[in-house]
Design goal:
- Strand 2, helix 2 and strand 3 form a beta-alpha-beta unit.
- Helices cover about 40% and strands about 15% of the residues.
- The chain is an alpha/beta fold.
- It has helices at about 20-25, 40-50, 75-80, 105-125, 135-145, 160-165, 185-190, 225-235, 235-250; strands at about 1-5, 30-35, 55-60, 85-95, 125-130, 150, 170-175, 200.
- The protein is built from nine helices and eight strands.
- The protein is globular and about 45 Å long.
């Protein structure tokens, strides 16, 4: 049984068949799903899905690409949403220097990241971090919040930076891109990281693994991530599935 720790089922890509797809996931061996929001609307939608499906949980937060028009006072709404019993993390939050090019955009996103990690610490919730081309600044902000635990999702760190994250007590999560031909760095990190600190995810509807690359991704494909990790670690897929599910349950306080 698998725990897909990162899937965006409120996304428009799932409008044609969202509820049929979600209802069928347990039959595909998916035991749990965590659905992180990217803004206030999607955070509310994640909670609504978690209310409807007993195996779905939510996270709430403001993604760095979704800050247009946002104000730091909007975190009062995030705080209120996080009080819902189905909310298990603050996320998806972080930094993205691939899309945010100007110094002003980047500084603003750092302010929101810092404030949301402070919120996670205040609420004793883990954080789900998006880090794209911003490793140095992401690590600096995380180091400044030693009381927060969480996960670097869709891990793109070097082995050295991954060890820094692990030393801080955080987890690393891997998605379908570990099956891509050019995934050398992620595979090196998987080899170096202890299994008890690894999570698996789809980032659905994005990042469908080989041989499904190019299709809409969903939690039914998360087994390919477990298979890849198992090959690197010299384990069975079942051992990786069991370990990563327990890791996710422990981090997100899910039964």
């Amino acid at each position: 049984m698998y725990f897909d720790t990162h899937a965006h089922y409120y996304d428009d890509a799932f409008d044609p068949d969202r509820h049929a797809l979600l209802s069928a996931l347990p039959e595909k061996g998916v035991e749990l799903v965590l659905c992180p929001g990217c803004d206030l609307e999607s955070s509310e939608q994640s909670i609504a899905l978690a209310e409807r499906y007993p195996f779905v949980y939510a996270a709430v937060g403001l993604h760095p690409e979704n800050l247009e028009g946002a104000q730091l006072r909007d975190l009062d709404t995030v705080r209120a949403l996080a009080a819902h019993p189905r909310v298990k993390a603050i996320g998806e939050i972080g930094l993205d220097y691939y899309w945010l090019k100007t110094s002003e955009e980047r500084a603003r996103s750092r302010d929101f990241f810092d404030a949301q990690l402070s919120l996670a610490q205040e609420l004793s919730l883990p954080a789900i971090v998006h880090d794209r081309d911003a490793h140095r600044d992401c690590l600096d902000v995380v180091r400044a919040h030693r009381g927060v635990q969480g996960v670097f999702h869709c891990c793109a760190l070097s082995v050295e930076d991954a060890r820094t994250v692990l030393d801080l007590g955080w987890h690393l999560s891997f998605t379908g891109n570990v099956t891509f031909p050019k995934a050398r760095r992620a595979l090196e990190v998987i080899a170096a990281a202890p299994l008890e600190r690894i999570l698996i995810e789809t980032d659905a509807p994005y990042m469908a693994p080989e041989p499904f690359r190019g299709r809409r991704n969903d939690s039914g494909y998360v087994f390919r991530v477990a298979e890849t990790i198992a090959q690197i670690k010299g384990l069975t897929t079942e051992e990786v599935a069991a370990a990563t599910t327990e890791n996710g349950k422990r981090l997100f306080a899910v039964e």
